[in-house]
Design brief:
Mean pLDDT: 81
Number of helices: 16
Strand order of the largest sheet: 7-6-8-9-10
CATH architecture of the domain at 373-516: 3-Layer(aba) Sandwich
CATH topology of the domain at 373-516: Rossmann fold
CATH class of the domain at 373-516: Alpha Beta
Structural class: alpha/beta
Helix content: 55-70%
Distance between the termini: 60 Å
Number of strands: 10
Largest sheet: 5 strands, parallel
Low-confidence stretches: 4-17, 172-179, 371-377
Order of helices and strands: HHHHHEEHHHEHHEEHHEHEHEHEHE
Length: 520
Protein backbone atom coordinates (compact mmCIF):
# COMPACT_ATOMS: atom_id res chain seq x y z
CA UNK A 1 0.00 0.00 0.00
CA UNK A 2 2.87 2.31 0.79
CA UNK A 3 4.19 2.04 -2.77
CA UNK A 4 0.86 3.18 -4.17
CA UNK A 5 0.81 6.14 -1.79
CA UNK A 6 4.32 7.19 -2.76
CA UNK A 7 3.45 6.83 -6.45
CA UNK A 8 0.33 8.98 -6.01
CA UNK A 9 2.33 11.67 -4.21
CA UNK A 10 4.91 11.72 -6.98
CA UNK A 11 2.20 12.09 -9.61
CA UNK A 12 0.61 14.98 -7.73
CA UNK A 13 3.98 16.73 -7.45
CA UNK A 14 4.62 16.15 -11.15
CA UNK A 15 1.26 17.69 -12.08
CA UNK A 16 2.14 20.83 -10.12
CA UNK A 17 5.23 21.38 -12.31
CA UNK A 18 5.16 23.27 -15.57
CA UNK A 19 6.19 21.55 -18.79
CA UNK A 20 9.54 23.38 -18.73
CA UNK A 21 10.52 22.25 -15.23
CA UNK A 22 12.41 18.97 -15.18
CA UNK A 23 10.58 16.36 -13.12
CA UNK A 24 12.36 13.18 -14.12
CA UNK A 25 11.06 9.69 -13.39
CA UNK A 26 12.49 6.37 -14.48
CA UNK A 27 9.67 6.13 -17.01
CA UNK A 28 10.87 9.38 -18.59
CA UNK A 29 14.44 8.09 -18.90
CA UNK A 30 13.04 5.00 -20.60
CA UNK A 31 11.07 7.10 -23.09
CA UNK A 32 14.11 9.29 -23.71
CA UNK A 33 16.25 6.29 -24.60
CA UNK A 34 13.43 4.98 -26.79
CA UNK A 35 13.41 8.19 -28.83
CA UNK A 36 17.20 8.24 -29.10
CA UNK A 37 17.14 4.61 -30.18
CA UNK A 38 14.76 5.55 -32.98
CA UNK A 39 16.91 8.56 -33.91
CA UNK A 40 19.82 6.21 -34.62
CA UNK A 41 17.96 5.15 -37.77
CA UNK A 42 17.23 8.72 -38.95
CA UNK A 43 19.41 10.76 -41.29
CA UNK A 44 21.78 13.09 -39.42
CA UNK A 45 20.63 16.09 -41.44
CA UNK A 46 16.98 15.48 -40.61
CA UNK A 47 17.85 15.11 -36.93
CA UNK A 48 19.76 18.38 -36.98
CA UNK A 49 16.87 20.27 -38.60
CA UNK A 50 14.30 18.85 -36.22
CA UNK A 51 16.34 19.48 -33.07
CA UNK A 52 17.36 22.97 -34.19
CA UNK A 53 13.67 23.82 -34.50
CA UNK A 54 12.95 22.47 -31.01
CA UNK A 55 15.97 24.32 -29.61
CA UNK A 56 14.96 27.61 -31.21
CA UNK A 57 11.26 27.46 -30.32
CA UNK A 58 11.31 25.69 -26.94
CA UNK A 59 14.75 25.62 -25.34
CA UNK A 60 16.11 29.06 -26.13
CA UNK A 61 13.18 31.02 -24.56
CA UNK A 62 13.58 29.03 -21.33
CA UNK A 63 17.34 28.49 -21.02
CA UNK A 64 18.52 31.67 -22.70
CA UNK A 65 21.73 32.02 -24.70
CA UNK A 66 23.94 31.35 -21.67
CA UNK A 67 22.33 27.95 -21.22
CA UNK A 68 22.63 26.93 -24.87
CA UNK A 69 26.23 25.77 -24.63
CA UNK A 70 27.70 22.30 -24.72
CA UNK A 71 29.30 22.49 -21.27
CA UNK A 72 26.27 23.94 -19.52
CA UNK A 73 25.83 22.82 -15.89
CA UNK A 74 24.07 19.52 -15.30
CA UNK A 75 20.92 21.26 -14.04
CA UNK A 76 20.66 23.24 -17.28
CA UNK A 77 21.29 20.21 -19.49
CA UNK A 78 18.78 18.16 -17.54
CA UNK A 79 16.15 20.84 -17.99
CA UNK A 80 16.92 21.25 -21.69
CA UNK A 81 16.73 17.51 -22.40
CA UNK A 82 13.50 17.38 -20.39
CA UNK A 83 11.94 20.08 -22.59
CA UNK A 84 13.08 18.21 -25.70
CA UNK A 85 11.51 15.00 -24.38
CA UNK A 86 8.17 16.71 -23.71
CA UNK A 87 8.12 18.08 -27.25
CA UNK A 88 8.86 14.68 -28.72
CA UNK A 89 6.11 13.11 -26.60
CA UNK A 90 3.69 15.80 -27.75
CA UNK A 91 4.57 15.05 -31.39
CA UNK A 92 3.96 11.35 -30.89
CA UNK A 93 0.64 12.02 -29.12
CA UNK A 94 -0.57 13.98 -32.16
CA UNK A 95 0.47 11.21 -34.53
CA UNK A 96 -1.13 8.39 -32.59
CA UNK A 97 -3.94 6.69 -34.45
CA UNK A 98 -4.10 3.46 -32.45
CA UNK A 99 -5.18 4.02 -28.84
CA UNK A 100 -3.44 0.78 -27.88
CA UNK A 101 -0.05 2.23 -28.80
CA UNK A 102 1.98 2.86 -25.66
CA UNK A 103 5.36 4.39 -24.94
CA UNK A 104 7.88 2.15 -23.10
CA UNK A 105 7.61 4.38 -20.03
CA UNK A 106 3.84 3.92 -19.94
CA UNK A 107 4.21 0.14 -20.27
CA UNK A 108 6.80 0.03 -17.49
CA UNK A 109 4.65 2.19 -15.21
CA UNK A 110 1.54 0.08 -15.75
CA UNK A 111 3.44 -3.16 -15.23
CA UNK A 112 4.97 -1.71 -12.04
CA UNK A 113 1.53 -0.91 -10.67
CA UNK A 114 0.26 -4.34 -11.66
CA UNK A 115 3.18 -6.01 -9.92
CA UNK A 116 2.71 -3.94 -6.77
CA UNK A 117 -1.00 -4.77 -6.72
CA UNK A 118 -0.93 -8.50 -7.35
CA UNK A 119 2.48 -9.02 -5.76
CA UNK A 120 1.29 -7.21 -2.66
CA UNK A 121 -1.81 -9.41 -2.46
CA UNK A 122 0.29 -12.54 -2.91
CA UNK A 123 2.75 -11.49 -0.19
CA UNK A 124 -0.13 -10.58 2.09
CA UNK A 125 -1.56 -14.07 1.62
CA UNK A 126 1.86 -15.69 2.13
CA UNK A 127 2.38 -13.85 5.41
CA UNK A 128 -1.05 -14.83 6.71
CA UNK A 129 -0.56 -18.38 5.42
CA UNK A 130 2.75 -18.69 7.28
CA UNK A 131 1.07 -17.78 10.56
CA UNK A 132 -1.74 -20.25 9.99
CA UNK A 133 0.75 -23.00 9.12
CA UNK A 134 2.52 -22.45 12.46
CA UNK A 135 -0.69 -23.04 14.42
CA UNK A 136 -0.95 -26.52 15.92
CA UNK A 137 -4.30 -27.50 14.45
CA UNK A 138 -5.37 -30.06 17.05
CA UNK A 139 -4.25 -28.35 20.24
CA UNK A 140 -4.69 -24.82 18.77
CA UNK A 141 -1.53 -23.31 20.09
CA UNK A 142 1.50 -21.46 18.75
CA UNK A 143 4.99 -22.61 19.60
CA UNK A 144 6.63 -19.32 20.56
CA UNK A 145 10.12 -20.40 19.50
CA UNK A 146 8.86 -21.58 16.10
CA UNK A 147 6.98 -18.34 15.51
CA UNK A 148 10.05 -16.23 16.27
CA UNK A 149 12.29 -18.40 14.11
CA UNK A 150 9.92 -18.57 11.13
CA UNK A 151 8.83 -14.92 11.04
CA UNK A 152 12.02 -13.08 11.99
CA UNK A 153 15.13 -15.12 11.23
CA UNK A 154 14.71 -15.28 7.41
CA UNK A 155 13.98 -11.55 7.25
CA UNK A 156 16.92 -10.61 9.43
CA UNK A 157 19.18 -12.85 7.33
CA UNK A 158 17.98 -11.12 4.14
CA UNK A 159 18.65 -7.70 5.68
CA UNK A 160 22.17 -8.78 6.65
CA UNK A 161 22.79 -10.06 3.11
CA UNK A 162 21.44 -6.82 1.67
CA UNK A 163 23.72 -4.73 3.89
CA UNK A 164 26.66 -7.01 3.09
CA UNK A 165 25.99 -6.62 -0.63
CA UNK A 166 26.14 -2.82 -0.35
CA UNK A 167 29.37 -3.00 1.65
CA UNK A 168 30.98 -5.33 -0.89
CA UNK A 169 29.70 -3.14 -3.71
CA UNK A 170 31.47 -0.12 -2.24
CA UNK A 171 34.63 -2.07 -1.40
CA UNK A 172 34.99 -3.70 -4.81
CA UNK A 173 33.87 -0.67 -6.81
CA UNK A 174 31.49 -2.82 -8.85
CA UNK A 175 28.31 -1.21 -10.11
CA UNK A 176 26.16 -4.02 -8.76
CA UNK A 177 26.47 -7.39 -7.08
CA UNK A 178 22.95 -8.49 -7.77
CA UNK A 179 19.92 -7.56 -5.75
CA UNK A 180 19.22 -10.98 -4.28
CA UNK A 181 16.95 -13.77 -5.42
CA UNK A 182 13.70 -11.92 -4.77
CA UNK A 183 14.84 -8.73 -6.47
CA UNK A 184 16.14 -10.71 -9.45
CA UNK A 185 12.82 -12.53 -9.72
CA UNK A 186 10.87 -9.28 -9.54
CA UNK A 187 13.12 -7.61 -12.10
CA UNK A 188 12.92 -10.47 -14.59
CA UNK A 189 9.17 -10.78 -14.10
CA UNK A 190 8.68 -7.08 -14.73
CA UNK A 191 10.81 -6.83 -17.85
CA UNK A 192 9.36 -10.08 -19.23
CA UNK A 193 5.79 -8.93 -18.68
CA UNK A 194 6.52 -5.48 -20.10
CA UNK A 195 8.07 -7.10 -23.16
CA UNK A 196 5.01 -9.28 -23.62
CA UNK A 197 2.74 -6.24 -23.45
CA UNK A 198 4.83 -4.43 -26.07
CA UNK A 199 4.83 -7.44 -28.39
CA UNK A 200 1.09 -8.06 -28.00
CA UNK A 201 0.12 -4.46 -28.63
CA UNK A 202 2.66 -3.28 -31.15
CA UNK A 203 4.30 -6.28 -32.81
CA UNK A 204 7.72 -7.83 -33.13
CA UNK A 205 9.57 -4.63 -34.10
CA UNK A 206 8.49 -2.83 -30.94
CA UNK A 207 9.31 -5.93 -28.91
CA UNK A 208 12.83 -5.89 -30.34
CA UNK A 209 13.22 -2.24 -29.37
CA UNK A 210 12.08 -3.06 -25.85
CA UNK A 211 14.63 -5.86 -25.58
CA UNK A 212 17.34 -3.30 -26.32
CA UNK A 213 16.00 -0.95 -23.62
CA UNK A 214 15.56 -3.55 -20.89
CA UNK A 215 19.29 -3.52 -20.04
CA UNK A 216 19.28 0.09 -18.81
CA UNK A 217 20.73 0.20 -15.28
CA UNK A 218 18.17 2.71 -13.99
CA UNK A 219 15.41 0.10 -14.36
CA UNK A 220 16.85 -1.58 -11.24
CA UNK A 221 16.08 1.44 -9.04
CA UNK A 222 12.28 1.05 -8.91
CA UNK A 223 12.77 -2.72 -8.54
CA UNK A 224 14.49 -2.11 -5.20
CA UNK A 225 11.50 -0.10 -4.00
CA UNK A 226 9.00 -2.71 -5.21
CA UNK A 227 10.79 -5.54 -3.40
CA UNK A 228 10.65 -3.59 -0.15
CA UNK A 229 6.96 -2.87 -0.73
CA UNK A 230 6.34 -6.60 -1.19
CA UNK A 231 8.33 -7.37 1.97
CA UNK A 232 6.27 -4.74 3.79
CA UNK A 233 3.04 -6.41 2.68
CA UNK A 234 4.43 -9.77 3.77
CA UNK A 235 4.83 -8.46 7.32
CA UNK A 236 1.37 -6.91 7.19
CA UNK A 237 0.10 -10.36 6.24
CA UNK A 238 1.87 -11.92 9.21
CA UNK A 239 0.27 -9.42 11.59
CA UNK A 240 -3.12 -9.79 9.91
CA UNK A 241 -2.97 -13.59 10.14
CA UNK A 242 -1.86 -13.38 13.73
CA UNK A 243 -4.70 -11.02 14.64
CA UNK A 244 -7.19 -13.17 12.73
CA UNK A 245 -6.23 -16.27 14.71
CA UNK A 246 -6.60 -14.39 17.99
CA UNK A 247 -10.01 -13.01 17.06
CA UNK A 248 -11.51 -16.06 15.35
CA UNK A 249 -10.12 -18.85 17.54
CA UNK A 250 -9.21 -19.58 21.12
CA UNK A 251 -5.45 -20.00 20.63
CA UNK A 252 -2.76 -20.37 23.23
CA UNK A 253 1.00 -19.81 23.30
CA UNK A 254 3.49 -22.36 24.62
CA UNK A 255 7.09 -23.36 24.14
CA UNK A 256 9.08 -26.51 24.76
CA UNK A 257 12.72 -27.52 25.07
CA UNK A 258 14.67 -30.52 26.34
CA UNK A 259 16.74 -28.86 29.11
CA UNK A 260 14.65 -27.49 31.91
CA UNK A 261 15.98 -24.52 33.92
CA UNK A 262 18.63 -23.65 31.34
CA UNK A 263 15.94 -23.39 28.64
CA UNK A 264 13.91 -20.91 30.71
CA UNK A 265 16.95 -18.70 31.23
CA UNK A 266 17.90 -18.94 27.55
CA UNK A 267 14.42 -17.89 26.45
CA UNK A 268 14.52 -14.95 28.88
CA UNK A 269 17.78 -13.79 27.26
CA UNK A 270 16.24 -14.15 23.80
CA UNK A 271 13.25 -12.07 24.90
CA UNK A 272 15.50 -9.35 26.29
CA UNK A 273 17.59 -9.28 23.10
CA UNK A 274 14.60 -9.15 20.76
CA UNK A 275 12.83 -6.47 22.79
CA UNK A 276 15.95 -4.33 23.36
CA UNK A 277 14.96 -1.58 20.85
CA UNK A 278 11.41 -1.19 22.09
CA UNK A 279 11.07 -2.95 25.45
CA UNK A 280 11.50 0.22 27.52
CA UNK A 281 8.79 2.04 25.55
CA UNK A 282 6.14 -0.69 25.87
CA UNK A 283 7.16 -2.75 28.86
CA UNK A 284 3.65 -4.22 29.13
CA UNK A 285 4.36 -6.21 25.98
CA UNK A 286 7.22 -8.14 27.60
CA UNK A 287 6.61 -11.59 29.10
CA UNK A 288 7.62 -11.91 32.75
CA UNK A 289 9.97 -14.58 34.02
CA UNK A 290 7.02 -16.26 35.73
CA UNK A 291 4.97 -16.16 32.55
CA UNK A 292 7.78 -17.73 30.54
CA UNK A 293 8.18 -20.55 33.05
CA UNK A 294 4.43 -21.15 33.32
CA UNK A 295 3.91 -21.47 29.54
CA UNK A 296 6.47 -24.22 29.03
CA UNK A 297 5.26 -27.60 27.78
CA UNK A 298 6.53 -30.46 29.89
CA UNK A 299 6.69 -34.17 29.27
CA UNK A 300 5.45 -37.05 31.39
CA UNK A 301 6.71 -40.17 29.75
CA UNK A 302 5.69 -39.94 26.09
CA UNK A 303 2.83 -37.51 26.73
CA UNK A 304 2.97 -33.72 26.51
CA UNK A 305 1.48 -31.80 29.39
CA UNK A 306 0.08 -28.39 28.38
CA UNK A 307 -0.36 -25.68 31.02
CA UNK A 308 -4.01 -25.18 31.86
CA UNK A 309 -5.64 -21.95 30.67
CA UNK A 310 -7.04 -21.60 34.18
CA UNK A 311 -3.50 -21.44 35.58
CA UNK A 312 -1.97 -19.03 33.05
CA UNK A 313 -3.29 -16.70 30.35
CA UNK A 314 -0.71 -17.55 27.67
CA UNK A 315 -2.07 -14.99 25.19
CA UNK A 316 -1.50 -12.20 27.71
CA UNK A 317 2.07 -13.44 28.19
CA UNK A 318 3.12 -13.82 24.55
CA UNK A 319 0.70 -12.27 22.02
CA UNK A 320 1.80 -8.64 22.41
CA UNK A 321 5.48 -9.60 22.47
CA UNK A 322 5.26 -11.59 19.26
CA UNK A 323 3.30 -8.84 17.51
CA UNK A 324 5.79 -6.23 18.70
CA UNK A 325 8.70 -8.36 17.49
CA UNK A 326 7.24 -8.56 13.99
CA UNK A 327 6.51 -4.82 13.96
CA UNK A 328 9.95 -3.71 15.13
CA UNK A 329 12.09 -6.34 13.39
CA UNK A 330 10.01 -7.05 10.30
CA UNK A 331 7.61 -4.24 9.43
CA UNK A 332 9.55 -1.18 10.61
CA UNK A 333 12.90 -1.98 8.88
CA UNK A 334 11.07 -2.58 5.60
CA UNK A 335 9.15 0.67 5.99
CA UNK A 336 12.37 2.58 6.63
CA UNK A 337 14.06 0.89 3.68
CA UNK A 338 11.10 1.60 1.40
CA UNK A 339 11.12 5.29 2.26
CA UNK A 340 14.91 5.52 2.10
CA UNK A 341 15.17 3.70 -1.22
CA UNK A 342 12.36 5.83 -2.62
CA UNK A 343 14.18 9.05 -1.73
CA UNK A 344 17.52 7.66 -2.93
CA UNK A 345 16.07 6.54 -6.27
CA UNK A 346 14.24 9.84 -6.79
CA UNK A 347 17.45 11.76 -6.08
CA UNK A 348 19.42 9.62 -8.54
CA UNK A 349 16.82 10.13 -11.25
CA UNK A 350 16.63 13.90 -10.64
CA UNK A 351 20.43 14.12 -10.81
CA UNK A 352 20.92 11.69 -13.66
CA UNK A 353 24.24 12.82 -15.23
CA UNK A 354 23.42 12.20 -18.92
CA UNK A 355 27.07 11.37 -19.63
CA UNK A 356 26.50 8.53 -22.11
CA UNK A 357 27.29 9.20 -25.74
CA UNK A 358 23.67 9.17 -26.88
CA UNK A 359 22.86 12.05 -24.50
CA UNK A 360 25.99 13.98 -25.42
CA UNK A 361 25.14 13.73 -29.12
CA UNK A 362 21.60 14.95 -28.45
CA UNK A 363 22.82 17.93 -26.41
CA UNK A 364 25.38 18.78 -29.08
CA UNK A 365 22.61 18.89 -31.70
CA UNK A 366 20.47 21.07 -29.46
CA UNK A 367 23.28 23.53 -28.74
CA UNK A 368 24.45 23.72 -32.35
CA UNK A 369 21.94 26.55 -32.82
CA UNK A 370 23.63 29.74 -33.98
CA UNK A 371 22.22 32.74 -32.12
CA UNK A 372 22.73 36.27 -33.37
CA UNK A 373 23.44 38.64 -30.49
CA UNK A 374 23.84 42.34 -30.21
CA UNK A 375 27.06 41.98 -28.30
CA UNK A 376 30.37 41.63 -30.06
CA UNK A 377 33.05 39.12 -29.30
CA UNK A 378 33.04 35.82 -27.40
CA UNK A 379 31.25 35.01 -24.15
CA UNK A 380 34.31 34.02 -22.09
CA UNK A 381 38.04 33.61 -22.10
CA UNK A 382 39.81 30.30 -22.57
CA UNK A 383 43.15 28.62 -22.02
CA UNK A 384 44.21 26.46 -24.99
CA UNK A 385 46.10 23.21 -24.46
CA UNK A 386 47.51 21.58 -27.61
CA UNK A 387 47.84 17.87 -26.95
CA UNK A 388 49.51 15.04 -28.81
CA UNK A 389 52.07 16.98 -30.80
CA UNK A 390 49.50 19.23 -32.44
CA UNK A 391 51.12 22.36 -33.90
CA UNK A 392 48.55 24.38 -35.86
CA UNK A 393 48.83 27.93 -37.11
CA UNK A 394 48.03 30.05 -34.02
CA UNK A 395 45.87 32.56 -35.85
CA UNK A 396 43.86 29.91 -37.68
CA UNK A 397 43.27 28.00 -34.47
CA UNK A 398 42.29 31.22 -32.71
CA UNK A 399 39.73 31.88 -35.45
CA UNK A 400 38.22 28.42 -34.98
CA UNK A 401 37.96 28.85 -31.21
CA UNK A 402 36.38 32.30 -31.59
CA UNK A 403 33.84 31.27 -34.22
CA UNK A 404 32.89 27.76 -33.16
CA UNK A 405 33.39 27.81 -29.40
CA UNK A 406 32.74 31.52 -28.89
CA UNK A 407 35.76 31.72 -26.62
CA UNK A 408 38.66 34.14 -26.57
CA UNK A 409 42.03 32.34 -26.26
CA UNK A 410 44.29 34.17 -23.80
CA UNK A 411 47.05 31.59 -23.20
CA UNK A 412 48.29 28.54 -25.09
CA UNK A 413 50.20 25.50 -23.82
CA UNK A 414 51.40 22.31 -25.54
CA UNK A 415 51.68 18.81 -24.08
CA UNK A 416 51.48 15.16 -25.07
CA UNK A 417 54.73 15.09 -27.03
CA UNK A 418 55.72 11.43 -27.24
CA UNK A 419 59.43 12.28 -27.24
CA UNK A 420 59.21 13.93 -23.82
CA UNK A 421 56.37 12.40 -21.82
CA UNK A 422 57.81 13.58 -18.47
CA UNK A 423 57.27 17.19 -19.57
CA UNK A 424 53.48 16.72 -19.46
CA UNK A 425 53.41 16.95 -15.68
CA UNK A 426 55.20 20.28 -15.79
CA UNK A 427 52.82 21.64 -18.44
CA UNK A 428 49.79 20.45 -16.49
CA UNK A 429 51.12 22.28 -13.45
CA UNK A 430 51.51 25.47 -15.50
CA UNK A 431 47.97 25.12 -16.87
CA UNK A 432 46.58 24.61 -13.38
CA UNK A 433 48.46 27.66 -12.08
CA UNK A 434 47.23 29.82 -14.98
CA UNK A 435 43.60 28.79 -14.45
CA UNK A 436 43.86 29.35 -10.70
CA UNK A 437 44.80 32.97 -11.37
CA UNK A 438 41.82 33.50 -13.67
CA UNK A 439 38.05 33.67 -13.17
CA UNK A 440 36.17 30.42 -12.47
CA UNK A 441 34.27 30.72 -15.75
CA UNK A 442 37.45 30.55 -17.85
CA UNK A 443 37.25 27.39 -19.96
CA UNK A 444 40.05 25.00 -20.76
CA UNK A 445 40.09 23.95 -24.42
CA UNK A 446 42.10 20.84 -25.32
CA UNK A 447 42.78 20.79 -29.05
CA UNK A 448 43.58 17.30 -30.34
CA UNK A 449 43.93 15.58 -33.69
CA UNK A 450 41.01 13.16 -33.83
CA UNK A 451 42.63 11.07 -36.57
CA UNK A 452 46.17 10.72 -35.25
CA UNK A 453 45.55 9.59 -31.66
CA UNK A 454 43.44 6.89 -30.06
CA UNK A 455 41.18 8.28 -27.31
CA UNK A 456 42.58 5.73 -24.84
CA UNK A 457 45.96 7.43 -25.06
CA UNK A 458 44.44 10.49 -23.38
CA UNK A 459 43.11 8.66 -20.31
CA UNK A 460 46.12 9.04 -18.01
CA UNK A 461 46.72 12.57 -19.23
CA UNK A 462 43.11 13.59 -18.47
CA UNK A 463 43.27 11.96 -15.04
CA UNK A 464 46.36 13.96 -14.12
CA UNK A 465 44.91 17.12 -15.63
CA UNK A 466 41.65 16.78 -13.69
CA UNK A 467 43.59 16.31 -10.49
CA UNK A 468 45.26 19.67 -11.09
CA UNK A 469 42.48 21.87 -12.49
CA UNK A 470 39.62 20.36 -10.47
CA UNK A 471 36.62 18.22 -11.36
CA UNK A 472 34.25 21.16 -11.89
CA UNK A 473 36.37 23.14 -14.36
CA UNK A 474 34.65 23.23 -17.77
CA UNK A 475 36.84 21.45 -20.32
CA UNK A 476 36.08 21.51 -24.04
CA UNK A 477 37.71 18.83 -26.15
CA UNK A 478 38.11 20.30 -29.66
CA UNK A 479 38.52 17.51 -32.22
CA UNK A 480 40.40 18.60 -35.33
CA UNK A 481 40.62 16.56 -38.51
CA UNK A 482 43.70 16.50 -40.78
CA UNK A 483 44.47 19.55 -42.91
CA UNK A 484 43.06 19.49 -46.42
CA UNK A 485 43.83 21.59 -49.47
CA UNK A 486 42.83 25.19 -48.86
CA UNK A 487 41.78 24.63 -45.25
CA UNK A 488 43.83 24.30 -42.04
CA UNK A 489 41.56 21.59 -40.63
CA UNK A 490 38.88 19.15 -41.68
CA UNK A 491 35.88 17.66 -39.94
CA UNK A 492 36.53 14.49 -37.93
CA UNK A 493 34.66 11.41 -39.06
CA UNK A 494 31.59 10.17 -37.25
CA UNK A 495 33.46 7.09 -35.99
CA UNK A 496 36.22 9.29 -34.56
CA UNK A 497 33.72 11.53 -32.78
CA UNK A 498 31.93 8.50 -31.33
CA UNK A 499 35.20 7.10 -30.00
CA UNK A 500 35.96 10.30 -28.13
CA UNK A 501 32.36 10.56 -26.92
CA UNK A 502 32.61 7.00 -25.58
CA UNK A 503 35.75 7.95 -23.69
CA UNK A 504 34.00 10.96 -22.12
CA UNK A 505 31.00 8.79 -21.23
CA UNK A 506 33.13 6.12 -19.56
CA UNK A 507 34.90 8.77 -17.51
CA UNK A 508 31.51 10.10 -16.30
CA UNK A 509 32.97 13.58 -16.51
CA UNK A 510 29.96 15.87 -16.77
CA UNK A 511 32.19 18.94 -17.23
CA UNK A 512 34.03 17.44 -20.22
CA UNK A 513 32.39 18.24 -23.55
CA UNK A 514 33.42 17.01 -27.00
CA UNK A 515 33.32 19.62 -29.78
CA UNK A 516 34.07 18.28 -33.29
CA UNK A 517 35.34 20.88 -35.74
CA UNK A 518 32.75 21.90 -38.33
CA UNK A 519 33.55 23.55 -41.66
CA UNK A 520 31.91 26.83 -42.54
Amino acid sequence: MLGWGIGWAREMMAESKTETEACWKVEDLLDLDYFLQQDAEVDEGDLGSRDEKIARENLLPVLGEMGMVGDAPLEVRSRGIWIWLQQRKAEVAKQRKDELSLMPGEVFEQVSRLLRLFGGLVMLALGAGLVFSLLHKEARYFNVMMVLAATLLPQLLLLVLLAGGWVLRGATGRKSLGGGVVQSMVRESMVWLAGKVRRHREGEKMHGQWQALRQRNYLAWPILGITQTLALMYNVGILAGFAGCLVAMDVRFFWESTPGVAAVETLQQIVRAVSAPWGMMVSDWLPTAEGIAETRITMEGAQKIYPSSEDVNSAAVWASFLAGSVIFWGLLPRLILRLGIGMWASRRVRRYPFVERRYRELWRRLTALRVETSSEGPDDEAVILLWGGLDPDPEKLRKVVLQQLRLNPVKTFAAGNETDVSADTKVIGEVGKALAEMKPRVRLVIAVESWALAPREATDFLDELRGKVGQDRAVRLLLLGPPIEGLPFSEPSGAEVKSWEDLAAERKDTALTVYPYREG
